[in-house]
Amino acid sequence: MPQLLSSRSRFRPRRLLIGANTERCIYCDGTRITREGKRYKKLETIQLWYCHDCDRVFTPQVVHGKRIPLKVILESLCLYYRGETRQRVAHQIKERFGVRVSLRTLSAWLAEYKSLTTYARLRAPALMRFTPHTLIRSTRLHHKQVYTYRVHQGKLALILAAKQHAAFRPVAAYLTEMATACPHALFQEEHRASQTANAFDLAGVEIVEKHNLAPRIAHLALQAVTHNKRRHDELQRFMLTTDSVTVAVEVPIYLTSADVRHMREHLGFHIPITATHTVTGHIDVLQIRNSRVHILDYKPGAIHERPIAQLMVYALALSRRTGLRLFDFTCAWFDDRHYFEFYPLHVVHKQRSPRRYR
């Protein structure tokens, strides 16, 4: 927090270090990068990097020409879409960062980033049902490590009120149950979905790269992250607050041995998972859109990743916990440039070849 010098003094602006950690060159995607000094601005210090592959000096922040740091801008957007008025947003930004933001400047930011903050159309109806303090429900889970499980109650209520998504109301019931009666003991074991071997048969499974809003949001939000360990949390928080389809992040999920046996014996699914223990995990991003439940996983190097087994455990588990068909789910992984999607039903249920008629 900025220090108050006297009863009549202003807040002293705190200089932010932007780009303190990065993973690759923005020009060639090379990973052989080293620090190359700093660039000092009025309200922030920007870390410079040198790429040994393309011989260029760069900054990880693509948004340029801003007098006020991008982190302050993104935090202002989050506060506004949490339900705060423009006056309250300006007051809280001044208290936290020591930066004065005029209402006109704030309105300009809202207009500039409107294409990425699609929650704008839901903000007014959501605030008719929830206050800014109850709009997002947050729960800290101590499952080997600390997870911040968040549910956007306003967005969830509005999405499920639509006729095309009414069948997904069991998802809301499960999300509430995990906030109040999560079986924490199951998550203390070592069997995690992210460690599951990828033994699923992918023959005939179509993995499609699509244009999606998630990489565009990640490209913006991750520029303001100053520590790599904060990437997941900052991106999840920004997506949950500002987009129109993300209803929960870090959702705890578990798949029991009884669940696996049921799907094998009664549904005929091919599930190459050892049915002797419970597999647990946390869904990075849960969305409801286009008449489907979307399970998303953020992977910094998505083009080199293939987390099929991990996403399949999430989809199978959420199907069992909610009673929804696996047909209703779509799985995807993404980073700030790529988005890959597949249907989990095609992985475990192989369609028979059509009969030939004379």
What does this molecule look like?
The protein is 32% helix and 22% strand. Helix 1 crosses helix 2, helix 1 packs across helix 8 and helix 4 crosses helix 5 (153-161). The strands form 2 sheets. Strands 5-6-8-9-10-11-12-7 form an 8-stranded mixed sheet. Strands 1, 2, 3 and 4 form a 4-stranded mixed sheet that branches. It folds into 2 domains: 16-114, no CATH class; 129-348, no CATH class. The chain is an alpha+beta fold. The protein has helices at residues 70-81, 86-97, 103-112, 120-127, 153-161, 169-180, 213-221, 231-242, 257-265, 308-322, 344-348; strands at 16-18, 33-40, 44-51, 56-58, 136-143, 145-152, 208-209, 246-255, 279-289, 292-298, 329-334, 339-342. A hairpin with a 4-residue loop joins strand 3 and strand 4. The longest helix has 15 residues, at 308-322. The N and C termini lie far apart (79 Å).
